Amino acid sequence: MTDPWVEEGRQGPSRNLLALDRAHVWHPYTSMTAPVLTRLVTGASGARLTVGDREVVDGMSSWWSAIHGYRHPVLDEAVRRQVSDFSHVMFGGLTHEPAVRLAERLVSLAPAGLEHVFLADSGSVSVEVALKMAVQHQRGTGRPGRSRMLTVRGGYHGDTAGCMAVCDPDGGMHAMWAGLLPEHVFAPRPPAPGGDVDGWATAFADLAEQHADELAGIIVEPLLQGAGGMWVYDPACLRVMRDVADEHGLVLVFDEIATGFGRTGMLWAADAAGVSPDVLCVGKALTGGYLTLAAALCTAEVAAGISASDSGVLMHGPTYMGNPLACSVALASLDVLRSSDWSATVAGISAGLATGLEPARALAGVRDVRVLGAVGVVQLDHPVDTAAATEAALDLGVWLRPFRDLVYTMPPYVCSDDEVTAITRAVVAAAEVG
């Protein structure tokens, strides 16, 4: 009988690697004592991965980051060019051109008013920094009692401690940490487009009023909640949040780590409502999936408040902050995005997802099908059978990673029409068996 742990690569070296992986490597959201099946990737190009002895379309963009696909010549060259100069240097007391140019570029692309850039080494870290910014700003403006955040149900902002505290406390992935994390204030999940925005707005405003003296800021994922449920909500809610933040002197933080750089059909999800936050978190697609890098951008007003706080400085400094390799490839990724007709590309993917996922509505056990930009979601009325759904997708030549009650896709922007069609067929097949 074939050992399922080595089925994807039966030659000696592959077999040994998978056995070692099973024995020693702890993968995300898995048990070490009862690990799930992993598959060996031996190559990648364009929108495709080489998994074992077969080539499959990556329907996940490597957790939403590889928007330009794999082995992109412009991005490859950016890394080679920078590594020939230097790969890393500490950012305390030193600087370098890739970091300066990247900060300049991000400011030019960001919603209006965001002038200052703190480079972080992951999306979660950028959220941690944003939370610190909000609290330090309040201290610097004479309101040291304001240390809690207002957010909404269904959110997800990362797996580090501060981030977990502003994720959904009950239905999210971090409920087991209740009692160990700071307790923040949670408003109802925003309504879907066309829903009762006025009713939600009243509840949101009332909650902010009730807790105003203890709130430092508001943090949300604009327009699309990611790992908390892939929920799409009405853009008018973003204007409500902006108005509430202004009324009570709160720092408005938009976590665009998943939604930024065109994923929703706009460069920023905030653009859907014409709203600018006080702090913007970006990551994932920033480097095109090549290296880990994120950033927290803030307004001059927020920066002034932080400077007026008791420390006088922003109390954060990652070892790999402003890594030159990551900054260089991020600049290249933004160049590729800017030089492409990304808006039309995402619109084409969106149309393909909408058409291709429509048959899923007729499947037993499907609660909802929704598409926003280059995001396609099939929501089930039960937890997905991840193993069965993954196999069904692989049988059709597509890599998917379902979770909770969701079979979804965020394709690379470089997918052809045929590849988008293949992805939608795989999502429908995965939903049918999942």
From TrEMBL:
GO terms for cellular component: cytoplasm. Keywords: Aminotransferase, Biotin biosynthesis, Cytoplasm, Pyridoxal phosphate, S-adenosyl-L-methionine, Transferase. Pyridoxal 5'-phosphate binds at G123, S124, D255, P318, T319. Substrate binds at W63, Y156, K284, G317, R401. It is an enzyme of class 2 (transferase). Coiled coil: none annotated. One of its GO terms (biological process) is biotin biosynthetic process. It is found in: Cytoplasm. The record marks Y29 as: Participates in the substrate recognition with KAPA and in a stacking interaction with the adenine ring of SAM. Pathway: Cofactor biosynthesis; biotin biosynthesis; 7,8-diaminononanoate from 8-amino-7-oxononanoate (SAM route): step 1/1. Its EC number is 2.6.1.62. The modification N6-(pyridoxal phosphate)lysine is found at K284. GO terms for molecular function: adenosylmethionine-8-amino-7-oxononanoate transaminase activity; pyridoxal phosphate binding. Gene3D superfamilies: Aspartate Aminotransferase, domain 1, Type I PLP-dependent aspartate aminotransferase-like (Major domain). InterPro entries: Aminotrans_3, Aminotrans_3_PPA_site, BioA, PyrdxlP-dep_Trfase, PyrdxlP-dep_Trfase_major, PyrdxlP-dep_Trfase_small. HAMAP family: BioA. Homodimer. Catalyzes the transfer of the alpha-amino group from S-adenosyl-L-methionine (SAM) to 7-keto-8-aminopelargonic acid (KAPA) to form 7,8-diaminopelargonic acid (DAPA). It is the only aminotransferase known to utilize SAM as an amino donor. Belongs to the class-III pyridoxal-phosphate-dependent aminotransferase family. BioA subfamily. This is Adenosylmethionine-8-amino-7-oxononanoate aminotransferase. It comes from Nocardioides gansuensis.
